[in-house]
């Protein structure tokens, strides 16, 4: 199918599509690396407080230190991948609300893009390293740019709660872009939904065109088909009313559930909006898929004819759509559930304790960004992102720079032999 | 061949039609017609055929002759005259060239076949059939015949031009040689005179020296001249070579469109070069083909209807069909892409050949 091949060229498929397993393992790896880093960083900070000698700020030997001191200190309790996910989701939801702060409110696609940026960013970065509150505003600002909804930085920053300065808003911009692997294209299901509804109403009015692969269809037969499907869950006066209702319900689902769950990583936009349509008006969606695929979608192949590509798609699509629909249906907003709010508060408290103190300093990153652009661009191409490991390197670099600034205090200049060799 | 007509002042030659003899009419010219090759005098032709085609006046010959076909006889023997005519005609039709044949053998076969046809026509065996064959071939291969004819003409003219050029060249060479000889002679004479005068004016002591010197000067000059001549000859040879080279591609240029008729075997298959197709940037893909939907001219939608009526928008170049096309494409782009399956396959491929970055990631993680 040509449309599928077109989608396969998108960066959303090439870079940002995962299997459920790989998504989980990626989050777990990110979490493990970040937790390690948080522990060493916090320990380092504590040591710096305890010992007054400036030499302690020198580069520690992480490997040996961790093992020897881990036992005699209270272990730092880090967030689990699941907690991280909930934490990020909270900020995604507040991002949705943040869009309403503007006059006029930000378009749905801008908000959705920003949410997806945030979700993509936190696949390879941990909220323990970078606080989502800061990244959130930046993501929204980048989304206004990539979705062609121009807004000046100052007017953008004014509406952000906490009133950050414009510089603060764009400070993590490069970091975010790097986390996004410089792929800004997000394929949303919104426009696809519009297309589907457009065609459904054309069919209802008897103007439907046959699908290229099923030339036996006629406008009249399509119209008869849509009029004879099972009645909707909620009764409607006419077929156009029914389509309109399904449209609104689906749109609502796409705005919220589709954004807050992992469907963007696991499914294609076309599959997402069709499963949302299945949830809001099952008979209608099933009929529409039937007109497209030449038969009802079932779990078992109806006539095993391998020559027809539609048959294969039909059987596979059944599973995919029901999985996706289940995922969408399982979503409940955090604010709607008291236990979820409680859980969130617990996570927030925990997060406060296990923040990486070295991840907070982001304005410095911006300065050193261009020099690293090349290397991270290379990482983008090869498809593996190691943003967390990047942090370590940066921490060392920063420390060296600090030492350089401290240098002039020494009358005869700094040490000739670098710390690392001196330690050995 | 180039001898002008047959003007034998044969006193007792008699026109077979009007029986007037050259004795009475010394300006009498005899004409023949290639239809039947019967000889008659000019006045007879005028008399009989001026008012249009008519039968041959010779008894027993029922050929219809026309005045404009009458011409002077070239050869004394009427049989030779006829054969030459037939040959010319056949050669004009069967004018295949050697380079048109696959092998030399095929060309030789063709030549033999041609000779056979000529012999048949001359000896009047199978005449009707052979003529029909020829006519058929002529109509079928009209184009290649014409092309070959043009080629022959071209060759002939270029040959002619070359010949005249060579003649001119030879003439010039002769003139130069003559002039040189003249110069030499004059110089020799002047040298001798000079020597004589010097000998006359000088003393006996240096007489020997003067004689030797003058002979040496003469020798030197002649050797110089010889090398000069050599140089000119080489130059001319080179010129001629380049000229012939320039001549060949003309004759070798390929002729297209010769149909392989049944008459001649072993012709090279002529490949007409395929017409270059217009450049197709999509390599056969029609840009607007879609598999899941057929794009309609318009879709019912109240909120788009306003946009469709908006003259300002469409005047600016905005076409709502663009929106339809994109929207419908996005509705189905990726419907048949099963991420679970395809991504796991992709990852399996990647893990079989670990990339450098992955190695780096592992190293960074273990640090």
Automatic annotation (TrEMBL), chain A:
Pfam families: Cyclin_C_2, Cyclin_N
Region (Disordered): 43-75, 353-424
One GO MF term: cyclin-dependent protein serine/threonine kinase regulator activity
Basic and acidic residues: bias regions: 66-75, 390-404
Compositional bias annotation for Polar residues: 48-62
Keyword flag Transcription: no
Domain Cyclin-like span(s) in chain numbering: 93-178
PANTHER family linked to this entry: CYCLIN (PTHR10026)
Function according to Swiss-Prot or TrEMBL: Component of the SRB8-11 complex. The SRB8-11 complex is a regulatory module of the Mediator complex which is itself involved in regulation of basal and activated RNA polymerase II-dependent transcription. The SRB8-11 complex may be involved in the transcriptional repression of a subset of genes regulated by Mediator. It may inhibit the association of the Mediator complex with RNA polymerase II to form the holoenzyme complex. The SRB8-11 complex phosphorylates the C-terminal domain (CTD) of the largest subunit of RNA polymerase II.
Subunit (UniProt): Component of the SRB8-11 complex, a regulatory module of the Mediator complex.
Name the UniProt record assigns to this protein: RNA polymerase II holoenzyme cyclin-like subunit
Gene source species: Penicillium cosmopolitanum
From TrEMBL, chain B:
Domain of life of the native organism: Eukaryota
Keyword Methyltransferase: no
Annotated signal peptide: none
Subcellular location: Nucleus
Gene3D superfamilies on file: Zinc/RING finger domain, C3HC4 (zinc finger) (3.30.40.10)
InterPro entries: MAT1/Tfb3 (IPR004575), MAT1_centre (IPR015877), Znf_RING (IPR001841), Znf_RING/FYVE/PHD (IPR013083), Znf_RING_CS (IPR017907)
Pfam families to which the protein is assigned, alphabetical: MAT1, zf-C3HC4_5
Ranges annotated as spanning the membrane: none
Coiled coil: 151-198
Keywords: Coiled coil, Metal-binding, Nucleus, Zinc, Zinc-finger
UniProt GO BP: nucleotide-excision repair; regulation of transcription by RNA polymerase II
Keyword field contains Metal-binding: yes
Single GO molecular function: zinc ion binding
Main location (coarse class): nucleus
Disordered: region residues: 345-367
One Gene Ontology cellular component: transcription factor TFIIK complex
Domain RING-type, first and last residues per copy: 15-58
Protein's name in the database: RNA polymerase II transcription factor B subunit 3
Species assigned in the record: Penicillium cosmopolitanum
